[in-house]
Amino acid sequence: MAKPTIVIALLLILLGAYGYSQAEPKEDTGKKSPTALIPAFFGLPILGCGVIALNPSRRKHAMHGAVTVGLLGLLGSAGMLPKTLKAEEVNQLKLISQGGMAILCLIFVVMCVRSFIAARKQMQEG
């Protein structure tokens, strides 16, 4: 599961970089909002955990840490989607960023849970 974790993390980082590169600067400050980087902020610790999980003796703890961050990312991004969709003018970039993050985190959490269940069954069998 370490390599798929690294792939998901890199996709989250790319999503955050894309969102930030496409974001419009704020009118009052002329600067882009760092909130566009939120997917990358979740991708970085997942990436770190994925790299640590390449070491078999540290894999279990690293993957539990990664899935915890992924679950928080899923809850946060999916929780914000209704608010984004209810806005008078739907911001397409925000929708892509939040929706993409929710989908990536959902896929990651499901993959991790399935992996944890398979590992538990394998451990119980022998």
Topology record:
Blueprint: H1 2-22, H2 38-53, H3 59-86, H4 92-125
Helix pairs in contact: 1-2, 1-4, 2-3, 3-4
How is this structure best summarized?
With 126 residues, the chain is mainly alpha-helical.
Word description of this protein:
This protein has 126 residues and is mostly helical. The protein has one domain. The chain is built from 4 helices and no strands. The chain has helices spanning 2-22, 38-53, 59-86, 92-125. Helix 1 runs antiparallel to helix 2 (38-53), helix 1 runs antiparallel to helix 4 and helix 2 runs antiparallel to helix 3. It is elongated and about 60 Å long. The two termini are 21 Å apart.
Radius of gyration: 17 Å
Proportion of β residues? under 5%
Number of strands: 0
**In terms of per-residue confidence, which ranges show pLDDT below 50 for 5 or more consecutive residues?**
none
Main β-sheet description: none
Mean pLDDT: 95
Structural class: mainly alpha
The helix/strand series, from N terminus to C terminus, equals: HHHH
How many angstroms does the end-to-end distance come to? Answer: 21 Å
Enumerate how many helices there are, as a single number.
4
Count of all domains: 1
Sum up the overall morphology in one term. elongated
Portion of residues within helices = over 70%
